[in-house]
Design goal:
Blueprint (H helix, E strand, L loop, with lengths): L20 E11 L10 E3 L5 E3 L11 E6 L2 E5 L13 E6 L4 E8 L8 E6 L11 E5 L5 E5 L2 E5 L4 E4 L10 E10 L2 E11 L4 E8 L8 E8 L9
Parallel strand pairs: 1-7, 9-15
Antiparallel strand pairs: 1-4, 2-3, 5-6, 7-8, 9-12, 10-11, 10-13, 13-14, 15-16
C-alpha cells in the first residue's frame, strides 16, 4: 500500500515570531482533499483584513491579493486572530519566494502540529511558461512520467517541471503516461491523450486515498484568458 506523504515542515519552528507584514502577493488556491473536499480557511488580504478563500472544485480559485508575514503565507481556520495567541488558529504556513503563485493545500498527516500542508508554485510566466505542465507528487513513492516521448522523474513532495510538448498530431493531441515504482518495476497507472495548446498550462497532482493500492491523478487546467477583439 502506498502511504501518504509525511508532514513537511517548509518554514521555521512554531515559535518563530511573525511581526513584519510585507507587500501582498497575487495567489490562486486549490484544495486537494478527496475525503473532506470542503474547508473554511482564511488569509489576510491586501487591506489587512481576514478573507475566506473561495475554493473551487478541482480548479484554481480567482486571484487573491494576500499579505505575507516575514515572507510566510499564513492560513487560518477562523477569521479571528487573538492578539495574545496569534498562532492559535493557524492552519498552515509556507515560505514564499515570488510575488505570484499557485497554492496547493492538502491535509497534513495525523497528529501533525498543523492540520494542512501548503505547496507553493511560482507561476510567473518566466518560471512556468505557456504550454508547460507541473506535476506535484504528494505520495511517498517515486513516480515517473512521459510526455510526448520525453521522460521525467517525479519525486515525492515536490513539483516537477514538464516542458512544452511538441510531439503532437494535427489536432495538437499528445500522449501523457504516468508510472509508479513498485519494488524494482515501473507500473503504468495512467495513460491519456491530451490536447497541448500554447495558451494552456496544466497542474497534475498525484495522490492516494486511504486503502488505495495504486495512485490517482488529478488534472487542473490553467487557461489564458481569451481576448475578443472588437470591430475597428
Amino acid at each position: 500500500m502506498i502511504k501518504k506523504i509525511k508532514c513537511l515542515i517548509l518554514v521555521a519552528l512554531m515559535g518563530t515570531s511573525y511581526s513584519q507584514e510585507q507587500a501582498g502577493c497575487s495567489l490562486r488556491f486549490t484544495l486537494h482533499d478527496p475525503i473532506n473536499p470542503v474547508a473554511d480557511l482564511y488569509v489576510k488580504n491586501a487591506a489587512g483584513e481576514m478573507e475566506k478563500i473561495q475554493f473551487l472544485p478541482q480548479a484554481l480559485s480567482q486571484p487573491m491579493a494576500v499579505l505575507l508575514q516575514d515572507k510566510n503565507l499564513l492560513l487560518y481556520s477562523k477569521p479571528e486572530i487573538d492578539p495574545k495567541e496569534p498562532l492559535k488558529n493557524l492552519a498552515a504556513r509556507c515560505e514564499l519566494a515570488g510575488r505570484r503563485g499557485m497554492i496547493v493545500v492538502i491535509p497534513a498527516a495525523p497528529k501533525s502540529k498543523l492540520p494542512y500542508l501548503v505547496f507553493a508554485l511560482d507561476d510567473d510566466s518566466q518560471n512556468f511558461g505557456k504550454g508547460e505542465s507541473r506535476v506535484l507528487n504528494v505520495t511517498q513513492v517515486e513516480m515517473a512520467a512521459e510526455f510526448g516521448g520525453a521522460k521525467y522523474s517525479i519525486h515525492p513532495g515536490k513539483f516537477s517541471a514538464i516542458k512544452k510538448v511538441t510531439k503532437v498530431n494535427e489536432f495538437n493531441m499528445g500522449q501523457a503516461n504516468f508510472y509508479y515504482k513498485h519494488d524494482d518495476a515501473w507500473v503504468l497507472f495512467s495513460e491519456r491523450q491530451l490536447q497541448f495548446l500554447d495558451n494552456t498550462r496544466r497542474l497534475f497532482i498525484v495522490y492516494t486515498t486511504p486503502g488505495s493500492t495504486v495512485p490517482f491523478l488529478l488534472t487542473i487546467a490553467d487557461h489564458a484568458p481569451t481576448v475578443i477583439l472588437g470591430k475597428p
